């Protein structure tokens, strides 16, 4: 998302017709950047630096040769932890390419097998990257239809590229005891399938360790939440994406470090006169004008992003094992009716006392933007200004920064 | 009235309760509250729901889920259909079906006993088995059963004549069938408006709800939403279609994945993206091109010496006259204007005057979007076939043709003079001459010189948008940042070239590549394509008339 990534991307682009060189350069670039972020995180030891590092290390593992599981954003990575597989999500990989302005290769590759230009670019680029043979050590491919069912055919295709059986988790739309059983039994089934596929046992200890880390993370976040609402810490827009990505795909000890740092950050005095914005759905990951408008230091900051808090109510019970994970998936407020989602967003808006809400409609994403009119209606009634912004998070050529700028600035003038 | 949204519903319930039921259907308006990202079928079909309808709504896809958000005023049941088919999924669905049964009984105040439901279920399965057999034997009979089971009108041909065409993909209507039939095929509908939506594999079960759940999940041809692979091979082996029309709804995420499989199976097919608003006009051209086979065309006896090809395009009309050796005698281009027939006639008169021949001594083949309007033509052929024939005549080794017109662009792969694969872009301005026109007017650079100008660019600037809507603000911004016209022009040409390259890859294009169409003379586009594709591009002397030339030659081929 920075100018640096774009410049590096340009350099890699130069070698694109020599795939091995390009891939090596990409790997090297990620490694260097990851090391840099680690150094920054250790020295600064603050929340956002740790989050930045955590997010990149997830993506980097896809290129490092570690054993990875390719998943979508909502697939419970705890299962993969039990097999010592690093979860990497296709959405994150697409975002990484976009940050370097290299997504066009992946998008074009997916389109060349017939994938329509009208599908979500996270999907297209994620598939394209695999078609381009860029992933190193994919040992499992897993998907859930939880929020978005466009994922299913994409992951079906990805799995077929590796000759792997696709692990599928079917998540019904509401939380009740029966559905908790249904989902947790599927998780057992998934473990069984993975044991056969990987030819190794599921390691309960590793699984429980992962659950414990998450438990600590969520407990701490819950505790800090009221303070954070009161005095949100300053973050760039893209850092919210890093945060939500880490929370969903691999909430590990890096994130735990971040959360511990958050406690300290919150104690530090900061003056706060910026206008507060709640962000809904995702935001473009490439270098773009939105990141400038909503930077750490601008007079308008994004104080919360919907997808960072969708699991706040999840009380982890390590003893309940898979049932606890099933509960996590089923209690997600985005799973069901749009009204439920709106209720949740309103809660965030009120808790964080925001001055306005921006919903980003990712091109081709039906589940998030389909009934946006309804969500807008709810905010309109509460007289909370709401902007529905169309664009593309991955394909930097399909929406124009000028369009973003005009709309967002007009909106910000409105809430002045 | 019970209204349902997708045939993954328990039809047995409706029959057993004896309540009238029907499926939602696209009507000519769109539900504006749903974001344009939502699938076009859904956006339109939701409008057919009335406030008094009792809904049985499945969460079959994201679009249907979002549509349901707006239907809360209706009495309704929201049914989760698992994306997989295993014992756990069956169990989950059968529990939900049981709840749905109770719900419907309460809503309609009905006391129908389970035994009646069981009877109806057995009847349904028997009929469905029968239906499957009849598809090959007696389409009329199949139609009757289908309509009885689903309360839907049969969509598909009933008489077998011409080439067999399998329709795959999402909900198709009779308009599509008509197009196929007009193009000389008979349509076997394997989309979800056809009999395959009612063909299942029955399995023993513990109770009636489980049995229905198994029936639903054991759909013989699982739709694109399911995690399992689509059983297209089975269908193709069974029907051995000569061609396939893959019909997808715009913004449906599922069916275009079939393309990969179809390419592997090496069956001629065409993908159509239906937005349910326009008249499927472009679909028609594609389907006709798919079914066109010059060898099958009836030979016409004419004492012609002049073979005339007229290509009536959306912006310009072209004429080419060849003699019976195929030598070009006359070529002319004019604007199509509001009346395609008139402009064609004018050109014809000009040709007759110039070459001094009578209409009886000529054989006219019309092509292009306006081909049907040209009433004096003896035959009509799509511009795709004509382009291939015309270019092949000029460059016998050609393997790929990239044709960029004012309103559309197409890439065709040719083997031995015949099209083996093609893709078209006519939905958006990106990738067509239209985009260049827009850029030309924003930058105030005449179209004729903009290609040449672009080659003067000194630095590589990547334009972020090829969407005509966004281009304007983008370009103005670049101008204000101080980029030169030339740099912006080069970036714009590159942007179009990139779109074309994607199409090229889709058909697995290979050299020699010939560039035709109104935009072919633009050196900027040619250079950009050459750089991206790393092949040399051939441009005919008259790149706009290759379609008309092909049409004229098609006439010649038909001479006795
Ligand atoms: S942006 Fe929407 S469509 Fe794309 S992956 Fe996310 S949920 Fe799915």
UniProtKB/TrEMBL annotation, chain A:
Signal peptide: none annotated. It comes from Pseudothermotoga hypogea DSM 11164 = NBRC 106472. InterPro entries: FldB/FldC_alpha/beta. Transmembrane segments: none annotated. Gene3D superfamilies: 3.40.50.11890, 3.40.50.11900. This is 2-hydroxyglutaryl-CoA dehydratase. Belongs to the FldB/FldC dehydratase alpha/beta subunit family.
TrEMBL record, chain B:
It comes from Pseudothermotoga hypogea DSM 11164 = NBRC 106472. One of its GO terms (molecular function) is iron-sulfur cluster binding. This is CoA activase. It holds the Pfam family HGD-D. Keywords: Iron, Iron-sulfur, Metal-binding. InterPro entries: ATPase_BadF, ATPase_NBD, CoA_E_activase_dom, Dehydratase_Activator_Redct, FldB/FldC_alpha/beta. The keyword Iron applies. NCBIfam families: CoA_E_activ (TIGR00241). Its cofactor is [4Fe-4S] cluster. SUPFAM superfamilies: Actin-like ATPase domain. The lineage of its organism: Bacteria, Thermotogati, Thermotogota, Thermotogae, Thermotogales. Residues 308-555 form the ATPase BadF/BadG/BcrA/BcrD type domain.
């Amino acid at each position: 998302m920075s100018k640096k990534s774009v410049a590096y991307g340009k350099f890699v682009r130069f070698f694109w017709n020599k795939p091995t060189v390009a891939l090596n350069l990409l790997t090297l670039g990620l490694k260097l950047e990851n090391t840099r972020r680690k150094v920054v995180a250790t020295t600064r030891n603050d929340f956002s630096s740790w989050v930045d590092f955590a997010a990149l290390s997830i993506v980097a593992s896809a290129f490092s040769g570690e054993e990875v599981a390719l998943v979508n954003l909502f697939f419970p990575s705890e299962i993969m932890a039990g097999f010592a597989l690093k979860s990497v999500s296709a959405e994150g990989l697409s975002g990484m390419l976009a940050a370097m302005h290299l997504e066009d290769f992946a998008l074009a590759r997916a389109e060349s097998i017939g994938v329509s230009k009208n599908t979500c670019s996270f999907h297209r680029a994620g598939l394209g990257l695999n078609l381009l043979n860029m992933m190193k050590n994919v040992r499992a491919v897993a998907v859930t239809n939880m929020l978005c069912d466009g994922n299913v055919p994409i992951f079906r295709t990805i799995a077929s590229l590796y000759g792997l059986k696709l692990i599928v988790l079917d998540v019904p739309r509401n939380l009740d005891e029966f559905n908790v059983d249904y989902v947790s039994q599927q998780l057992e089934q998934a473990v069984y399938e993975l044991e056969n596929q990987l030819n190794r046992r599921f390691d309960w200890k590793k699984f429980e360790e992962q659950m414990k880390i998450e438990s600590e993370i969520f407990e701490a976040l819950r505790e800090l939440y009221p303070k954070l609402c009161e005095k949100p810490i300053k973050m760039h827009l893209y850092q919210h994406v890093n945060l939500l990505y880490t929370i969903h795909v691999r909430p590990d000890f890096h994130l735990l470090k971040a959360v511990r740092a958050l406690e300290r950050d919150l104690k530090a005095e900061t003056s706060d006169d910026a206008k507060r914005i709640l962000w809904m759905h995702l935001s473009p990951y490439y270098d773009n004008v939105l990141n400038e408008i909503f930077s750490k230091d601008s007079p308008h900051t994004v104080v919360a992003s919907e997808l960072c808090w969708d699991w706040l109510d999840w009380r982890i019970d390590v003893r309940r094992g898979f049932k606890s994970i099933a509960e996590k998936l089923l209690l997600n407020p985005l799973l069901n009716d749009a009204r439920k989602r709106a209720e949740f967003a309103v809660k965030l808006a009120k808790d964080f006392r925001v001055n306005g809400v921006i919903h980003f409609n990712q091109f081709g994403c039906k589940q998030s933007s389909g009934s946006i009119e309804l969500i807008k209606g709810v905010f309109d009634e509460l007289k909370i200004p709401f902007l529905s912004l169309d664009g593309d998070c991955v394909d930097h050529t399909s929406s124009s920064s000028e369009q973003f700028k005009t709309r967002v600035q007009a909106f910000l003038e409105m809430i002045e | 009235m019970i209204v349902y949204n997708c045939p993954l519903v328990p039809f047995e319930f409706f029959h057993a309760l004896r309540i009238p039921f029907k499926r939602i259907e696209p009507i000519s308006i769109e539900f504006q509250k749903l974001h344009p990202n939502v699938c076009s079928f859904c956006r339109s079909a939701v409008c057919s729901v009335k406030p008094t309808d009792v809904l049985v709504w499945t969460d079959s896809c994201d679009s249907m889920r979002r549509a349901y958000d707006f239907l809360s005023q209706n009495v309704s049941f929201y049914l989760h259909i698992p994306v997989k088919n295993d014992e756990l999924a069956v169990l989950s669905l059968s529990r939900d079906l049981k709840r749905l049964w109770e719900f419907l009984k309460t809503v309609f105040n009905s006391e129908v006993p389970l035994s009646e439901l069981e009877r109806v279920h057995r009847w349904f399965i028997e009929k469905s088995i029968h239906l499957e057999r009849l598809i090959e034997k007696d389409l009329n009979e199949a139609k009757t059963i289908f309509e009885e089971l689903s309360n839907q009108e049969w969509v598909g041909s009933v008489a077998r004549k011409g080439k067999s065409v399998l329709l795959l993909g999402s909900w198709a209507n009779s308009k599509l069938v008509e197009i196929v039939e007009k193009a000389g095929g008979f349509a076997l509908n394997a989309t979800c408006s056809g009999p395959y939506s009612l063909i299942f594999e029955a399995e023993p079960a513990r109770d009636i709800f489980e049995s229905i759940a198994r029936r639903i999940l054991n759909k013989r041809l699982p739709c694109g939403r399911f995690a399992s692979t689509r059983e297209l091979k089975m269908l193709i082996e069974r029907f051995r279609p000569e061609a396939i029309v893959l019909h997808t709804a715009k913004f449906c995420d599922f069916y275009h994945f079939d393309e990969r499989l179809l390419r592997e199976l090496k069956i001629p097919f065409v993908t159509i993206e239906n937005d349910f608003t326009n008249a499927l006009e472009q679909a028609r051209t594609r389907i006709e091109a798919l079914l066109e086979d010059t060898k099958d065309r009836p030979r016409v006896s004419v004492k012609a010496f002049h073979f005339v090809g007229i290509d009536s395009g959306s912006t310009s009309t072209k004429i080419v006259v060849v003699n019976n050796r195929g030598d070009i005698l006359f070529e002319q281009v004019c604007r199509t204007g509001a009346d395609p027939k008139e402009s064609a006639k004018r050109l014809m008169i000009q040709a007759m005057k110039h070459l001094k021949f009578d209409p009886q001594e000529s054989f006219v083949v019309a092509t292009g979007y306006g081909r049907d309007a040209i009433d004096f033509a003896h035959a009509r052929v799509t511009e795709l076939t004509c382009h291939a024939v015309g270019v092949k005549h000029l460059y016998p080794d050609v393997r790929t043709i990239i044709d960029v017109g004012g309103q559309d662009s197409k890439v065709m792969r040719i083997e031995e003079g015949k099209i083996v694969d093609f893709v078209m872009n006519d939905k958006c301005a990106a990738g067509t001459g239209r985009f260049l026109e827009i850029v030309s007017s924003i930058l105030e650079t005449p179209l004729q010189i903009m290609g040449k100008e672009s080659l003067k660019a000194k630095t590589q600037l990547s334009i972020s948008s090829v969407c005509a809507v966004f281009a304007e603000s983008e370009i103005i911004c670049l101008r204000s940042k101080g980029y030169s016209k030339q740099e912006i022009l080069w970036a714009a040409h590159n942007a179009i070239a990139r779109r074309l390259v994607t199409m090229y890859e889709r058909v697995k294009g290979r050299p020699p590549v010939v560039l035709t169409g109104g935009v072919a003379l633009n050196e900027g586009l040619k250079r950009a394509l050459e750089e991206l594709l790393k092949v040399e591009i051939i441009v005919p002397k008259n790149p706009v008339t290759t379609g008309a030339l092909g049409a004229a030659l098609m006439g010649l081929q038909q001479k006795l």
